[in-house]
Amino acid sequence: MKKVVVGLSGGVDSSVAAYLLKKQGYEVIGLFMKNWHDDAVTISEECPWLEDSNDALIVAEKLGIPFQTVDLSVEYKERIVDYMFREYERGRTPNPDVLCNREIKFDVFMKIALELGADFVATGHYCRKGILKNKDGTETYRLLAGVDDNKDQSYFLCQLSQEQLSKTLFPIGELTKPEVRKIAGEQNLVTADKKDSQGLCFIGKVRLPDFLQQKLKPKKGVIVTIPADASHYNGSAPKFVTSEEKLAYASKKPVYSKADGKIVGEHQGAHYFTKGQRKGLDVGGTKEPLYVIDTDVDENVIYTGQGKNHPGLYRSTLFVTNDELHWMRTDLALKEDETLEVLARIRYRQSLQKATLYKTGNGLYVDFEEKQSAMTEGQFVAWYVGDELLGSGVIS
User: Fold this and answer.
1) Residue 199's pLDDT is what?
2) How far is 46 from 36, CA to CA, in rounded Å?
3) Helix axes 177-186, 12-23, angle to 10 degrees
4) Is 40 exposed, middle or buried (0-12, 13-18, 19+ CB in 10 A)?
């Protein structure tokens, strides 16, 4: 009998994943990850880890499977929290959920599971795994979107490797959320009607400014609004000799200065803000709401534009350096000067967008057919062919 360790989070998805695996004849063990100790920066009603671990225990007892809690808070702080602080300090916006999957669930947690003698690790992600049999007898693993378009979570797993995928199961990937809740209800699982958590991976609903202020001290600066007809957006593009020059130009973000616009307010630190953000600016008196179009952490200035259609929010092309480029399907990785037509997204839940990948000597350009709003440095771009996720990278 194959042994599977399920990451029981105390939510309905992982509960049903454990139930389905047991039903399929696996020997199932439930493991709850404790990743955070500081309750001062979470909103306790939303996702308290204590309540979640209790729910996970109740589910394990109901299913008749062994259960234990593992404390990964040291690794979580080193690999996720410290990384977040470093990225925000640099003026970039990290995606902790993608990192948590790569570094914690499918690395530290997976190693613990394998030490317990597990053949696989399973999670309650809405995605599917495919297997290709190669002529030499080896297998290539595919990460496929979940059947439920509304819940597909393949984006969050965009940094996994073939090695990690080989040991992973996604039992609910073929189901929709209502079907999962129905199964949980039929089995009288305590999590059947539990609200989905919206917070950081296994921490909970975090007050981000409070969280960041633990390390990044408030620092007063100015908010500048840039007019929509600024020269940055209306200047004619130079003539390009090569397509790479054209892509490099298209991927460059405008550089602003205080002289380009008007000071309209103050903020407590540019490193607390991210591109596309509307809330928290506390500036009134404008015809349309202000959106952050850029932050300068060195000068501690936030640049804004009026309205969600402000040209400063939009770009068609982004760049990923070789250091931050990841191919899940290593056999399909582009070589220099090769191109590939794909569907891509730059954030979770964004509908897939038509794009072309261009591989160069020092990285990869992702050139979208239509301009995208708030391409944010530090976030992940993921690309697909059909419903298969092939690779991803950090936006430069």
Assistant:
1) 54
2) 15
3) 70
4) exposed
How open is the CA angle 294-370-318, to the nearest 5 degrees? 50
- Please report the pLDDT score of residue 215 as a whole number: 78
Q: Is 30 helix (H, G, I), strand (E, B) or coil?
A: strand
Identify the CA nearest to 226 among candidates 177, 271, 261.
261
Residue 38: what pLDDT? 63
Closest among 134, 91, 84 to 292, alpha carbons compared: 91
Cα 277 from chain centre = 17
Burial string for 381-390 (b: 16+ CB within 10 Å, else e) reads: bbbbeebbbb
Digit-coded pLDDT (tens) for 153-197:
999 999 999 999 999 999 999 999 999 999 999 999 999 999 887
Question: Would you state the structure tokens that stand for residue 322, as one six-digit string?
Answer: 């070789």
Give the catalytic positions in this structure.
100, 201
pLDDT-flagged residues of the chain (< 70): 37-48, 198-210
Give the pairing of strands 3-7 and 27-34.
parallel
pLDDT tens figures, 68-115: 999 998 898 899 889 988 999 999 999 988 999 999 999 999 999 999
- CA 309 to CA 344: how far, in whole Å? 21
Amino acid in position 228: A
pTM: 0.93
Q: How far apart are CA 226 and CA 233, in angstroms?
A: 11
Can you list the domains of the chain with their CATH numbers?
Answer: 3-213 (3.40.50.620), 217-396 (2.40.30.10)
Give the C-alpha separation, 32 to 67, whole Å.
8
